Structure formats: structure tokens, C-alpha cells
Amino acid sequence: MTISSATSSYALTMPQADAVDSTPPSCNSATQTGASATGKTDLQSSQLGTIERHRNSASKVSSFFQSIGAFFQAKFSSVFKSSDSHPVTLFKPQADEKTQAFIESWSQTNFTDPATRVDLQTRDGASAPFKFVVHTGSVENLVNGTGIFAPDADQAMKSWDTICTSVVTDEKCYAYGAFGVILDVPPENVLASSSSDLMSDINIGREDRKDFMVNVSKQQNERMLEVPEPVRKGYLSKHLAAFSNEKQQRNVDDLMENTYFQHNEVIVSTREGVQHKAGVDATGEIKIKGIFMIDAEPSPETIHVHNFNEKHALSKEEKHDLFMKHAGPIAENLGVPILFLNGESTTA
User: Fold this and answer.
1) Are 187 and 111 in contact (CB under 8 A)?
2) Closest to 244 measured CA to CA, from 275, 263, 267
3) d(Cα 146, Cα 138) in Å, to the nearest integer?
4) Which backbone phi and psi does 163 adopt, to 5 degrees?
5) β partners of residue 230
6) How far does CA 7 lie from the centroid of its chain?
7) Paired strand residues for 167
8) d(C-alpha 183, C-alpha 52), whole Å
């Protein structure tokens, strides 16, 4: 048989066994005995020769396949080399210039660490500029130790998907509520930022938050909740996509420059490991770094809102007494300071 490869050609001819005389010796002739013995010897020699030729043929076949193996190893060895010699480089998309500037402006280094502001731990003690990201809760949350004031609020936030926050400074300290927490927010977690209230419905699609919708009636919300869960989870993504224009993607300085007489709104993601913007790292962990109250008398606007909702607007001292009674144990449990900020709140 003939076997060919790209580099060599082998011709292997399998030997044939010698013909053996099958005629039986004559039993009637005495002279046949010696001849018979000689015939046996010749036959054995012939058989041994045949076996040796087969062995040689087998050896040649083995050498042939070894040569084929060596050929393929030499030709394709680069394919099987260690990955160390051929490291894999993963392609990572780059954020566009505007997105990069947005993320850099929300760097945590651009905000004040409340632990360093001992002056703010006493009433009317502010002695230097500050800038915080805050999230407020209701009076009921504070009194009952629920929501953002719950003992496990740090962990509970991770299941909320998103929350509404505001940026407050010593010059423009406008918050939605009078009581709240100061947050450490990774810049990748900032989804939208507007100098005015977005009236966002970040609870959309959530059964446990159906009573906190802003722009959707109770009947509409009930119909929305009748769809399968995967569809409900898509409501929030679609809702957030509406806040992608420049006026709702403001850098921090631009946000504060355009904040006037009311709280701004910054939507942040509370889940870790989610990539929201192309070319931007996944979200990190949000942490509570302090508890605060707006230590001021209610503004005329606040009183109007409370009257409209048939509620009592707490005075400065009423807020302080309530805050000191309930905030102390919460702050101690979280290991964070209590701060007093001179500003205005829309509620409480």
C-alpha cells in the first residue's frame, strides 16, 4: 500500500508467504524419509522468514505514523502553546467624552466625609463649606425605625434597585424631607441628575411599593402589576431611559449652579455589579455615612404642602426633639455621626 503526506511519501509492500508444497510424502518409499526431514527444515525456515518480513513491515508502519505525528506537531504546535505565551486581550469599550466628564464629576473625592465635620455635630456649628449626597425618609420611618432608618438599611438598600437622592451644600441646602441619611455613592451608580424634581416613578413595577407611585393612578398600577415579573422588571429600565438628555445628566457643579430654592433630584442605583453606561465600570456599594436633620423652621412652601395634605408642619424645636429621641440609637447602631444642617425641606 502507498501512504502520502504533504512532506513525505511512503511505499509499503506487504510480503507474501512462500508457497508450500502440500503434496504428502509417499509412505511406501523408504527413500522418502530423509527427503521428508529435509522438507520440514526448509518449511520452518520459510515460515520464520515470513514472520520476520511481517515484523519489518509493522516496524515501517509504526515509523510512518510517528513521522505523521511529528509533522502535525511541528506544523500546528502554536495552536497548542500555553496561553501565557499568547495572552488574551479583552476589548473594553470606552465611554464618550461627556460620559467620562460626568463620571469624574461624581467622584467620591468631590464630596465631604461627614466623619471629618465635627462642627456639624452641634446646632448652628457649620464653619466651612460642605457637599453631601442625601436621601430622606419620613417622620414615620424615623419613629418606627423602618426604611432608610432600619437597623439593616445598608443591606436593605441593595434590594431597592434605585433611590432618589439630592446634593446639598452649605450654600444650597434643600432636601425633600427634614430627616435623612448622608450617603457614600460610587460615581458609576449615578443614573440621572436634575436641578429640579424629576417626579420620577422609580417604584414602577414593584408590588411592595405600589402605594408610592407619583404619576400613575392606583388602577393603572394594578393593571401594570398583572403582567409577568420579567415584564414588570423592564418598566424601570424604560422609565430611566426617559432621563437621558443633557438636562437630566448634569455634572455636579452644573447641577448645583442650576439648583434654585428647592431640592434637586439625583437617581442612583443601589445594586452592586450592574453596568448602566457603556464604557463605565459596574456599580459599587452604597454606604450610609451619617444621619442628619434640617435644623430650621418650616418654610412657607413647606407649611402649604402640609396644609394641603392635612398634616402638621413640625417646628424647628419639634423636629429636634423628635430627631434626638430616635436618631441616636440608629446612628449608634450604624456607627455614624449625627449632623445638623441649616437649610430647607419640602416635607416634615
Assistant:
1) no
2) 267
3) 9
4) -140, 160
5) none
6) 52
7) 133
8) 89
Q: Name beta bridge partners: 135.
A: 181
C-alpha cell at 240: 430611566
Beta pairing partners, 3: 10
- The single residue listed with the C-alpha cell 445594586 is 271
SS3 for 173?
coil
Residues facing 164 on adjacent strands:
267
- Per DSSP, the three-state class of 95 is coil
| Distance from C-alpha of 130 to C-alpha of 110, rounded to nearest angstrom | 10
**CA pair distance 326, 145, nearest whole angstrom:** 8
| 139 Cβ contact partners less than 8 Å away, ≥ 6 residues apart | 178, 179, 314, 322, 348
- CB distance 172 to 185 below 8 Å: no
In angstroms, what CA-CA distances link 160 with 182, 190, 198?
Answer: 17, 15, 18
Rounded to whole angstroms, how far apart are CA atoms 72 and 79? 11
Q: CA-CA distance, 331 to 338, in Å (whole number)?
A: 7
pLDDT in tens, the chain (348 residues): 444 444 443 344 444 444 444 444 444 443 444 444 445 455 555 555 665 665 666 566 567 667 766 766 666 555 545 555 556 666 667 888 888 999 999 999 999 999 999 999 999 999 999 999 999 999 999 999 999 999 888 888 888 889 999 999 999 999 999 999 999 999 999 999 999 988 887 777 777 666 767 777 777 777 777 778 777 767 777 777 778 888 889 999 999 999 998 999 999 999 899 888 888 899 999 999 999 999 999 988 889 888 888 888 999 999 999 999 999 999 999 999 999 999 999 887
Residue 264 near residue 174, CB atoms below 8 Å = yes
Yes or no: say if 264 and 257 are a contact pair by the CB < 8 Å rule.
Answer: no
Model-level pTM?
Answer: 0.70
CA dihedral (85, 86, 88, 93) positive or negative: positive
